Prior knowledge:
396 residues; alpha/beta; Rossmann fold
Amino acid sequence: MPSGSLEISSGVFWVGVEDWDRRVFDAFIPLPYGTSYNSYLIVGSNKSALIDTVNPGFEGSLLREISQILAPEKLDYVIMNHAEPDHAGSIPAVLKIAKHAKLVASKLGVNMAEMYFKVPHERQIRVKENDVIELGGKTLRFIEAPWLHWPETMFTYDMAEKVLFSCDFFGSHMTSGKLYADEVGKLLQPEAKRYYAEIMMPFSASVQQALDKVKLLQPEKIAPSHGPVYRDPQAIIELYEKWARGPLEKKVVVIYVSMWGNTEALQRVITETISSKGIEVIPYNLTVSDVSHVLRDLVDASAVVIGSPTVLGGAHPLAMYATELVASFGVRGKIAAVFGSFGWGGGAVRRLTARLEKGGFEIVDALEVRGPPEEEHFRRAVTLSEAIADKVAGET
Ligand SMILES: Cc1cc2nc3c(=O)[nH]c(=O)nc-3n(C[C@H](O)[C@H](O)[C@H](O)COP(=O)(O)O)c2cc1C
Ligand SMILES: [Fe+2]
Ligand SMILES: [Fe+2]
């Protein structure tokens, strides 16, 4: 963040930290640009509130940032929009110093604060939709926004300044030294989408409900808890609209793994054939790919094709892993095909097909080839690709 004034609106201060060195989130998502834990201090004429805290380990930095504006001992409220430790993990340190401060959270939130952070009952304030707290010349309103991406999540809204504090919603894993989205440049949108894919895509029904509320509020700024602040939020709201319920792209994601090149030979024909039909196709070799990129492309893809050799009667472990993600992460384009090579008994295609069907996918074709594919198998790979391409062309 730049030095100097970090007042994003009158009486609203950014007091978070940038974790430049963090390289993994949720124990599997790479963070090439680190991430930030944004905490906001809201100062009214007679009371003050802190909205969300920071990841454990950064308590000292948070308290120092707060101290530049106000003695942390004087805080009246700590608002917890979300109980996950990257935002709530420093609550114990803040409440210890701010001896009179109360923790404000949703009904489930206060329960989770007690469970995770041992916040005692007498220090909890439970809020529901449209409840407010008055800070003096400043009113904070609470908006229920459950399942973004935990059950207790809520938003806080500064009514006078029209700033929406949305926590993970509209977040991105990004450290840039910049406070505002419009200062970050081209890197931001793909990172916001990658974040959306992992955190929000499994909850698109809740995303849609929350978007309807956000659109009614018409916030002038959106201040999430990761990545930069949007001071012109229309574009990110429209992107969320598109990702959660907009039309899908004429795009097919091909995910494959191959030990000796046989499955890969089929993949090449499949990728070329789909592409020749005028449909965008993105192949991912799982051996060298980042699954968060796969998930990002699946946000608006119409179809997925998965290829794996048979290993120990099932699919290759990387294909099992990726297929589990595809089937359980709320991918909207539910058209699929499966292919692969085997040596003796086979089984990969059967295994992956079953998992995708359980996840609600329609399997338009499946192809399992013994050993290296021959001419007839390549012809079958072409018909599989045509079935996918025709279905995608018809659906979108
Ligand atoms: C570790 C390992 C385990 C395998 N297990 C099986 C199996 O259980 N059943 C089978 O039909 N083939 C099995 N195979 C054979 C492969 O499926 C076969 O060689 C296939 O053509 C490899 O495809 P690829 O070139 O795309 O890696 C196994 C191969 C390896 C290396
Ligand atoms: Fe979270
Ligand atoms: Fe988070």
